């Protein structure tokens, strides 16, 4: 019996050792493969900065050369698998980190992932939901991505869509993430100082984003919450598919099948009797409602994720890349819009800091100068679009400790991609004008004005009470000074100084009362009382001086 237990312990230890050895081998092989593919690009980028890597002047590289590199790098990312495809997709939304030519090339990774064989998906379905839970299941995928594949099926007599996570994807991504973490110190050492702030934060954000996207239970919760928000508002222009919780898990997501016409199929939409301009407006308002009112939003406005049903309602698919705003972040985004509309550079800087996009220690004067130049450039342009604004601002702020938080980046991504999609529906669609209209119609501008007036009122109240306490403070101060003065100073001169002080305070109070009339007459009347108090003290002091 003892010998049997001893052999059992040895067997368990051997299994653990073999498991650790397998992980080490897998990690080493993956590391060498990644290095073999990416090191040539690292050398090229370093040679751009130093012709001979460690010394020499920088070299000029043409836009065409960068475009060729971007295409080759895109192919390498596709070859390295889901983690690097997702990195490319994230970088395509980060103009603060990569040049525009690379960002534009990486956007195409969205549709470049080939679908895998159906037999690889069966274990997840069988283990998590029960393969025979579905009345019928079509093995031909209707969509595929870097992390999952989507199938048609029938569940409890209803047509559904089933999203299944690719097999082994989580282990592969966790291995890749460990590899990436090993490279971070080296990347920070080689990266230009102006990019280190953005890179450091982007790496932290990426790990959270990709692990969240792997969790279909989280996606189900986000879908249910967004669906509930629109139902609570009584909004009948948006459809969010229902989730079947009893046929869903971390790896499998079963949702209602909602048929619709692809949003970019303008000819078919018109043939079905839908007005493309109205559809564009409804899509924009749906995103504004999610982001600015609900604080939970769909973050992937890819043309394949948006459709129009027979009733003209907007259908949203795929909530893997979704985000959430805190109330403070919602207010900051609204205030940022308002500051931009009013050309308020200081307000823009304040909100960038509040959102975590700009380091609080950044040189405000220099940042303000840059933003002023951006506004001047945009005002001089005949046509201004969202993507142009993002490119201008991020391009000119590269020299500062500037980063774009992941949730804000999702909003910018929504804006830039949506604008391109919506202009296929309406060539004259203006995303910023639509945002301004939404803010005005939903009372955000009025609310901002009320908040500003409330802040001014609070400051004025504080100042007014301080002003009311001034006579007593001034009296004590003057008395203290009188005690300290030498006996050589004439009493009439002392009294004259006091009278002059009261006269100055009375004049200042009168000016302040006049300014308060436009804010609140009550405060103005209170200010006049202060004026009369100072006048009384002035008259009394002058009278005492004559005695």
Report on the structure:
This protein has helices at 2-49, 63-80, 82-91, 100-107, 122-128, 169-190, 193-214, 216-233, 266-271, 276-294, 327-341, 345-354, 364-379, 386-396, 406-425, 431-441, 444-468, 470-484, 491-516, 521-546; strands at 136-137, 143-144, 148-155, 158-165, 238-239, 252-256, 261-262, 296-298, 306-308, 314-316, 322-324. Strands 1, 2, 3, 4 and 6 form a five-stranded antiparallel sheet that branches. Strands 5-10-9-7 form a four-stranded mixed sheet. The model is unreliable at 486-490 (pLDDT under 50). It is built from 20 helices and eleven strands. Helix content is 65%, strand content 7%. It is globular and about 105 Å long. The relative contact order is 0.06. It is of the alpha+beta class. Pfam families: ABC1 (PF03109).
Topology record:
Layout: H1 2-49, H2 63-80, H3 82-91, H4 100-107, H5 122-128, E1 136-137, E2 143-144, E3 148-155, E4 158-165, H6 169-190, H7 193-214, H8 216-233, E5 238-239, E6 252-256, E7 261-262, H9 266-271, H10 276-294, E8 296-298, E9 306-308, E10 314-316, E11 322-324, H11 327-341, H12 345-354, H13 364-379, H14 386-396, H15 406-425, H16 431-441, H17 444-468, H18 470-484, H19 491-516, H20 521-546
Parallel strand pairs: 5-10
Antiparallel strand pairs: 1-3, 2-3, 3-4, 4-6, 7-9, 8-11, 9-10
Helix pairs in contact: 1-2, 1-6, 2-3, 2-4, 6-7, 10-15, 10-16, 11-12, 13-14, 19-20
